[in-house]
Structures are given as C-alpha cells and as structure tokens.
C-alpha cells in the first residue's frame, strides 16, 4: 500500500517537474533553452548610423528625403516661416526657428526639391511674380523648386523657368528677383541650416537613383553579414537571429519605387547559414508601408507616420506577412515571425493595432501551427501590459519589449550605478510581472550594452552587460541583442564580445525564476519520497 502510494506520488511529482522545468523552454530550440539572439540590424533594412559609408557617394548627400532645413534671409536676418505650421501664407519674419520654420525636403534630384511644412502642406508658387504660400496638399510642378548651393550653405531658390525667389522688404517670398543673384548679401540668398536627417532605404535609393542604389545595396547585402558571422554566433552560444526586413521584400523582383529588390535572396541565404549552424531565425517586419513610427528604420520618407491612416497600408502589411509565412513556414530554421516592429504609441492606436495583430496571427497559423507569432510593444508612452489585456492568442505567441537606457531624457545624466539599478528596480519586476501574466511569452527583442554615461570604464560596461543578461535571461521567451555589427562600437555585438565589454558567460547562469525554484522543490520532494521508500 505504502509502496504503491509512494510510486504514484513519485510519478505525479515527476510529471509536475517535467511541466515546470521543460514546459518553460521555447519549442524548436535545442535542450531546455530560451532564445539568446542577436539582431541583424542595418542589413536588409538600412540605417545610416549603423553603416554611414553606404551614403557617402550620394551627390548633395546631406539633402535627402526627410532632411529638415531652416532658411534664413541674409538681408532681413529672419527665418522663413509657414504660418500655423502650414496651410496658410508664408512670411520671412522669425528670429528663432522652431517647428513652423522647419521644412522637410522631398528630393526630386540632387538639385530639385519640394518643401513640406510641419502640418504636411508644400510650399507653392504658381509662377513668375507670384507669392509663395504653404497651401498645397500634394506636390507637382508649382511645388517644385530648383536649388543652387554655395560651399558655405548659402542657397538660391528658383522656379523651373529660371526666376529666383526673393525675400521682399514686407516679409513675403516672391518669385520676382531681377536677373541672377550672386553669393553676396542679396534678397535671393538664404542661409540653410540642416537640423534633422533620415538615412534609411528610401533616402538611399532615391538619393542614388535606381541603378546606382541597386549596385550599392547588392554589395552591402552580400558583404555586411556573411556565413562567417553565423560561425561567430554559434561559437558564442547564440541560438537565434532576429532579422529585420522591409515590406517591399514581398514584391522582391519588382518592388515599388524607390525600393530595391534583392533582399529576399539575402534572407534565403541567412536561413541556409542559420540551418547549417543550428541557429533559428525570427523574421521581423521592421518597415511597414507608410511607416509605423516615422523613423529611418521604418523606411519613412520624411518622418511622418502614415501606416495607420490607410486600410491599404494595413492590408499590404498583411500581404507581406502572408508572403513571408508561406515562404518560410516549412523551413526548419524558422522560429517565429514578428508582425510589426515598434509602432508609435502617439500615432498607432490599439483600436487599429490589435485587430491587425489578430489578423496577422491567423495568417501565420494558416501556414504553421508552431511558428511563434511575435507582437511588438508600442514605443513611446505605452505600457506593454496593454498587449496582455488585449486577449491576443496565447498559443506560441510572444510580446516583444525593447529595453534601452537611452532615447529618453530620464537617462541623460544617470551614473553607471544608477543605470545598473534601473535594470534591477524597473526592468526586472516588469519582466517578472509579464512572465506570470496569462498570455504570450516575454521577449526582450532589442537591448544593447550602451548607455548615456560618458567614458564608462571596461569594468563599468562589464557590470552593465552582466546585470542586463541576468535580468533578461529570466524573460520567458528570451532576448536579442541590438545589433550584430555597427559603426558605433558599443552597439556592435561582435566588437563588444571580442573586446570583452560584453561577457556572455554570465548569460549562461541558470536563472532563478520562481518556476525554476518550484521545479527544484518538486524534484527534491520526489527524491525524498523515493529515498523514504527505499529505506
Ligand atoms: C499671413 O496671414 C496672416 C493671417 O491672415 C496675416 O496676419 C499676416 O500679416 C500674413 N503675413 C504675410 C507676411 O502676409
Ligand atoms: C518665366 O516665364 C514667365 C512667363 O510665364 C516670363 O514672363 C518670364 O520672363 C520667364 N522668366 C525667365 C527667367 O525666363
Ligand atoms: C529692400 O530695401 C532695401 C533698403 O531700402 C533696398 O535696397 C532693397 O532693394 C529692397 N529690397 C526689395 C526686395 O524690395
Ligand atoms: C504622430 O504623433 C505625434 C505626437 O502626437 C504628432 O505630433 C504627429 O503629428 C503624429 N503624426 C502623424 C502623421 O499622425
Ligand atoms: C479580454 O478578456 C477578458 C476576460 O474574458 C474580458 O473581461 C476583457 O474585456 C477582454 N478584453 C478585450 C480588450 O477584449
Ligand atoms: C544623451 O544625453 C544627452 C544630454 O546629456 C542628450 O542630448 C542625448 O540625446 C542623449 N542621447 C541619447 C541617445 O539618449
Ligand atoms: C543633463 O546634463 C546636461 C549638462 O549638464 C544639462 O544641460 C541637462 O539639462 C541635463 N538633463 C537632464 C534631463 O537633467
Ligand atoms: C572622456 O574621454 C575623452 C578622451 O579620453 C576626454 O577628452 C573627455 O574629456 C572625457 N570626458 C569626460 C566627461 O570625462
């Protein structure tokens, strides 16, 4: 009796142990493990700061789509201003340039541009002698200006037939400068100050023009990430890569202008290399049509966020997900598909995002019952728990959190110790809370061993890396470092590992999650029961 009882207790406890210890690992990864990934950032979705040399041969390469400029009359010493930020008249009367005085360039060619106001209208001048207004909703001939640029950032602006714009003494802009201006102080000369830039796929392709861009991107896609990198990752215990892609990959042979085909072949290569090294792939739709966050890594044209504004963008995005799911669902290296990277909380409401996530989930499930479907948190002022309250499916789903001690004024002047404490005091409880919420697993899909501390020592960086690995290891799905290679050394995973700034072995420690503790207790109880029986 006692023997049978103890046998069943042991079987029961052993089953509990299996559930608690094995049940927590990520399906598809070897052993009882979680995702330990690196992002392949700046590869199939371009970011100028990751590899500045990609942009260096563009003529007038600091005047690309989305470049923000302010223009000051050299005679009036005032800035050009769109009243109300656009939609009305234009004056040359501001001393301190702010939003109304900032224009986003749309590049037609290296010397032909359109100027977009903060509110989205374009500067327009209907012809000779006419005044410039900021009333055009979309650009055509009357909104297209020819620029001449001097070495010291002085510019002239003229109409197509050669008439120059000048700042008149009553503070309006008119197309009536007589003749051709020199570079002295005259009413047709303006000082151009560049206050913002974008360097993404849109800027690169439109800046070079199709043929040159194709050559530049072909070389980049073939050389920036290679099979050797997968060898490096494998040797350092990395079991997954997160690969950002742009929506145009779905029409790779002939993507909409100005985007350039060829990223699909590179993605295929990544899957083969991954398979050879027993590494899994997460495909991350990083750039969606219209842009979901206005940043260069969403391939935004000029910084505006338009993804959510049109049902067509959303259905094109779902088409891209369908394309990726249908192509890679059966590939043994596929671990998951992330539906949309970093939608901006200020622009993309949950009313739009949650139905999109639900549809995306269904589409992936049409092709795979096991691939993880990953929902990225909104960036800006949004609590990731909102995605747990949204009742998204919990069958192989994941919520992706991006943890940077940067990009928020809170971190500007923190000491290294305060940065480390932040990981323990703020990040750790958040991961724990979401781990134990019902629903998707938790993934720290982007983090970096960099901060806004000036001149941190090697030991400071090692401490920061260690605490991040310890805390992010507890995330139920795992983590992914941003990014594999980067011009800025501390963002560069390979550099950080080779130079010992990031010590990965701390990531190998068994994490002390409550689940692991429970599983150890159950195992001990089972052993105790067997021991009692044997004696
Ligand atoms: C622009 O329009 C506003 C409002 O109609 C007016 O007050 C202002 O004087 C105008 N400025 C110029 C430079 O025409
Ligand atoms: C531009 O065209 C207008 C007529 O549309 C003409 O009056 C003017 O002289 C032309 N300007 C130049 C510089 O050719
Ligand atoms: C503005 O006034 C100055 C000084 O009176 C004059 O030299 C200049 O020609 C005027 N400019 C325009 C565009 O009327
Ligand atoms: C996005 O949100 C920001 C902040 O609310 C706002 O300033 C901006 O105009 C929005 N952009 C678009 C295109 O909706
Ligand atoms: C999610 O499900 C819970 C419980 O079924 C329900 O109370 C809640 O209203 C649902 N939330 C949404 C956003 O559907
Ligand atoms: C770092 O801090 C400075 C202010 O000290 C701030 O201007 C800058 O934007 C911060 N950098 C980042 C990436 O957050
Ligand atoms: C950080 O320090 C800089 C320089 O001392 C200062 O200008 C800035 O206001 C500080 N930022 C914050 C958020 O405290
Ligand atoms: C950081 O180091 C650089 C070069 O070693 C030095 O010029 C700079 O003053 C240091 N900055 C601080 C804040 O210590």
How helical, in percent, are the residues? 25-40%
Fourth CATH level, the homologous superfamily of the largest domain? Glycosidases
How many domain modules?
3
What are the bound molecules? Answer: 2-acetamido-2-deoxy-beta-D-glucopyranose
CATH topology of the largest domain: TIM Barrel
Write down the Rg. Answer: 27 Å
Number of strands: 20
Distance between the termini: 15 Å
The helix/strand class is alpha/beta
Largest sheet data: 8 strands, parallel, barrel
Low-confidence stretches: 506-517
> What quaternary form is this?
single chain
Report the principal-axis shape: elongated
Strand order of the largest sheet: 1-14-15-16-17-18-19-20
Mean pLDDT: 93
CATH architecture of the largest domain: Alpha-Beta Barrel
CATH classification, class level of the largest domain: Alpha Beta
* Separate helix tally: 12
User: Strand portion, in percent?
Assistant: 15-25%
């Amino acid at each position: 009796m006692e023997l049978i009882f103890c046998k069943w207790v042991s079987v029961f406890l052993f089953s509990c142990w299996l559930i608690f210890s094995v049940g927590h690992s990520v399906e598809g990864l070897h052993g009882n493990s979680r995702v330990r990934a690196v992002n392949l950032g700046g590869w199939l979705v371009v970011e100028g700061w990751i590899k500045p040399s990609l942009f260096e041969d563009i003529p007038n390469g600091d005047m690309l789509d989305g470049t923000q400029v302010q223009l000051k009359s050299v005679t009036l010493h005032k800035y050009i201003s769109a009243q109300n930020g656009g939609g009305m008249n234009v004056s040359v009367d501001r001393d301190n340039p702010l939003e109304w005085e900032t224009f986003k360039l749309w590049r037609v060619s290296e010397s032909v541009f359109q100027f977009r106001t903060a509110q989205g209208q374009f500067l327009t001048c209907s012809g000779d002698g006419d005044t410039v207004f900021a009333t055009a909703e979309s650009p055509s001939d009357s909104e297209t200006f020819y620029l001449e640029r001097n070495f010291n950032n002085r510019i002239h602006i003229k109409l197509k037939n050669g008439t120059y714009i000048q700042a008149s003494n009553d503070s309006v802009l008119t197309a009536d400068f007589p003749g051709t201006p020199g570079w002295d102080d005259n009413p047709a000369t303006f000082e151009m100050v560049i206050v913002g830039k974008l360097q993404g796929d849109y800027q690169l392709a439109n800046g070079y023009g199709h043929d040159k861009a194709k050559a530049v991107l072909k070389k980049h896609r073939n050389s920036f990430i290679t099979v050797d990198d997968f060898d490096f990752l494998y040797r350092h215990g990395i079991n997954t890569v997160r690969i950002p892609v742009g929506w145009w990959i779905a029409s790779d042979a002939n993507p909409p202008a100005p985007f350039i085909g060829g990223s699909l072949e590179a993605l295929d290569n990544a899957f083969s290399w991954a398979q050879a090294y027993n590494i899994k792939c997460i495909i991350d739709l990083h750039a969606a049509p219209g842009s979901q966050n206005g940043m260069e890594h969403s391939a935004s044209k000029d910084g505006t966020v338009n993804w959510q504004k049109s049902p067509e963008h959303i259905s094109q995005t779902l088409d891209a997900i369908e394309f990726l799911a249908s192509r890679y669902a059966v590939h043994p290296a596929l671990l998951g598909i992330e539906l949309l990277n970093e939608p901006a909380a200020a622009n993309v409401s949950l009313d739009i995002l949650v139905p999109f996530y639900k549809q995306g989930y269904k589409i992936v499930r049409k092709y795979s019952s096991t691939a993880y479907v990953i929902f990225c948190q909104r960036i800006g002022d949004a609590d990731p728990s909102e995605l747990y309250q949204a009742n998204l499916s919990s069958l192989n789903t994941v919520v992706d959190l991006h943890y940077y001690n940067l990009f928020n004024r809170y971190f500007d002047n923190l000491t290294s110790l305060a940065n480390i404490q932040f990981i323990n005091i703020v990040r750790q409880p958040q991961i724990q809370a979401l781990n134990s919420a019902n629903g998707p697993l938790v993934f720290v899909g982007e983090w970096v061993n960099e901060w806004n501390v000036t001149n941190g020592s090697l030991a400071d960086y090692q401490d920061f890396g260690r605490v991040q690995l310890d805390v992010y290891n507890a995330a139920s799905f795992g983590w992914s470092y941003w990014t594999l290679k980067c011009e800025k050394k501390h963002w560069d995973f390979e550099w950080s590992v080779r130079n010992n700034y990031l010590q990965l072995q701390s990531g190998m420690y068994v994490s002390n999650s409550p689940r692991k503790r429970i599983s150890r207790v159950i195992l001990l109880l089972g052993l105790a029961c067997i021991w009692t029986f044997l004696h």
